[in-house]
Amino acid sequence: MIDRYSSEEMSSIWNEDNKVTKWLEVEKAVIKTLEEEEITPSGLSKQLNEVSISHKEVVEREAITNHDLAAFVDVLQSKVKKDSNWIHYGLTSSDIVDTANALLILESINILSEKLSELINSLKNKALSESETLIIGRTHGVFAEPTTLGNIFGNWCLEVSRGLDRLNSSAENIKIGKISGAVGNHSLISEELESKILENLSLKPEPLATQVVSRDRYADLFSSFAIIAGTFERIATNIRNYQRSEVSEMFEAFTEGQKGSSAMPHKKNPIGSERICGLARIVRGNTQASFETMALWHERDISNSSVERIILPDTFKLIDFMTRDLTKIINNLVIDHEKIKSNLDSAETKLGSQKLLSLIVSKGNSRDEAYKFVQNLTQNNISMNEVIKSTNSSFDNISKDEIQNCFNLSVTIDTKVIEKKLKDL
Fold it and tell me: For the segment 277-290, what is each residue's pLDDT rounded down to a tens digit?
């Protein structure tokens, strides 16, 4: 992933040196357990604890081996003075790579969970502070009925919260390592030893493994990413719509010295939201790639490896960037309350059409007749007095107050509901 969309925090996890460090961490955990079980000579674990390996060293050796994990093992053995023959005993490459991947993934999810929680809190605060702000609700992009801005932010907040729940569920599903050998049959490392090794790494074993951890676990993780990205795109798309010149109800903040266009000085463009929409497409593409890696030949082929080297770091970096970006947009969102009210007022005799229809029907009139009447009445821009006059002249037993109440925008909106729905977040 290019630096533009990478935070230092996430990049520090997915850099090559840290990957090698995690490989070494797994090798150390294996030797520690084997030594405790008196399988390997005493003192080997202590030697390993004093060893460090750089990615550069691995790359130099890989020029000969053409196999990065084998190169890593060669470098590691060269740094151990005694009993180095026991290093990588009973293991295959995927025992190290897949187990280390789980450590990298879980470390990354911890960061994402924290950032998503910050976004949830930002949306919750917006929902509560705007719980009484009436705004036009739109369906198909067209005026529908009034709602509250608090309900809109609250809806977004709960959707992000569900995304975090899915991600945490995926974390449990991928908290899996594998120390079971070339085809997962424990030919040299027993199940009991595997469990002890992985317990030291806070992981659980793949119950019935092949040469690799099953890739449906990865696909589940990427599905969580795709849904989170979809939620972000939905929020960003709506912010873009609210910022349209003919709507003008909410805007991304525009900082001192910022330029919206190289050609048109008047422009204030929702570039952050547009960026999020674009990056969501990459995340979904990476998710499709993760589905493709599930279909491995027999106990394993290597077709997943090249894909995962790209999509794992890139997708974590993108979701991290998008979460931070959206949180900043929400925290600094400019809300034009006067324009919101102006838009409401301009549509006053449209927004109560359902209530007026129901009122007329409740008086014993034909629904079809009532629908046609209200449709003809409210599709035109007429005054409230004209609505009252026309309704009174067309239907009996309907009072002026009953008609006006249909267009009382605040009468059915309980702003306390928003606080109740979000209180546990």
Answer: 999 999 999 999 99
